[in-house]
Amino acid sequence: MSKHVILDPAAHDFNLFNSPFYLIAHADFQYHEDVEAVLVKNGVSKNIYRLLTVLREREEASISWLAQQALIKRNTVSRLVERMAQMHLVTTTLLHEDNRVTVVALTPAGRALLDRLTPVVSRQTARAMAGLGQEQLQQFVLTLRQIIDNLNKLGLE
């Protein structure tokens, strides 16, 4: 790769294959393709696993918060949560102060499934990050957070 990388898609010498967003999407696709095969063998989709991992970060969460954190549309999360409840992975209750809000919590079965799947996902993460030092990874995370912050505050038009 040359020292001079054109990142502006409008530039005449723009190279898609060096574009950060193309590379992020490509890495994400490859990472999740292998993980999803393992998840399906265990009876869960990538989205259900994602919701389980988000729920691990919080005792209870509203459907709206889950949708925002998991990057899944709210109506899709509602359907997934119903399915997860049928699988006994989560419980749902109405918020006492506002019965329009559904609160979702992991069950012991949901936590056990996460405990079983997390080592597999951990191996995929290690595979993806092989050869990168801790400092590189920390800088990568900081860079991604900066990009996310930029996109959150700057509208396209």
TrEMBL record:
SMART domains: HTH_MARR (SM00347). GO terms for biological process: response to stress. This is MarR family transcriptional regulator. It comes from the Bacteria. It comes from Komagataeibacter xylinus (Gluconacetobacter xylinus). One of its GO terms (molecular function) is DNA-binding transcription factor activity. It holds the Pfam family HTH_27.
